[in-house]
Structure to design on (209 residues):
């Protein structure tokens, strides 16, 4: 298993859980995401992007980090370029740090849909801001290590059929139409288990250290 952590331009809260998730991984940064490196005590092996969102002070501070520069007129975001480079370097597991929030909600949405695509292609993916975590749900059974009373939601990107156990509001083979709020704002009440019988979904949780 080769794990890469990719520093993206969204929100970040440094927690012990996040530090543990990053431990031992290789690190790449996408444009302004490199601002998270100092807070995490990390030095990326590569800094990727067109650098249109990294000001002169940040570029000077991180001048020692090797760069791969792309033109602003390109067909991929800096984050997607970082993903492609990590996969080319042998990544089998990705932690997308700063995947939520930030000034670009379109990028945060892309990170969620991209995570689903990557998971379906066989790459394990975790999205995180420290305060929030996202895990793609493939068809099958999934168990999670969240503490009791952790808030979580299952976000459906299609119609779903889903079962949820060890939660305040369990479900059993429940059909959930696309756009329904039925699977939002639930709480862990044991060893959370989610089984996706059909559809495409992402679990988003608010872990508590």
């Amino acid at each position: 298993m080769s794990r890469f952590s990719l520093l993206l331009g969204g929100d970040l809260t440094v927690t012990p859980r996040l530090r543990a998730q990053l431990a031992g991984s290789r690190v790449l940064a996408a444009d302004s995401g490199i601002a998270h490196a100092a807070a995490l005590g990390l030095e990326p092996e590569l800094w990727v992007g067109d650098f249109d969102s990294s000001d002169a002070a940040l570029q000077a501070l991180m001048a020692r980090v090797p760069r791969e520069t792309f033109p602003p007129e390109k067909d991929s975001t800096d984050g997607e370029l970082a993903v492609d480079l990590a996969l080319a370097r042998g990544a089998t597991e990705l932690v997308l740090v700063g995947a939520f929030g930030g000034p670009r909600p379109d990028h945060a949405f892309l990170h969620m849909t991209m995570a689903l695509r990557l998971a379906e292609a066989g790459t394990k993916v975790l999205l995180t801001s420290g305060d929030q975590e996202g895990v793609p749900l493939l068809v099958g059974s999934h168990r999670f290590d969240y503490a009791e009373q952790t808030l979580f939601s299952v976000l459906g990107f299609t119609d779903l059929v889903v079962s949820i156990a060890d939660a305040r509001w369990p479900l059993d083979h429940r059909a959930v139409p696309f756009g329904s709020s039925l699977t939002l704002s639930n709480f862990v009440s044991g060893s959370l288990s989610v089984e996706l019988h059909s559809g495409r979904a992402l679990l988003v949780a608010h872990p508590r250290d």
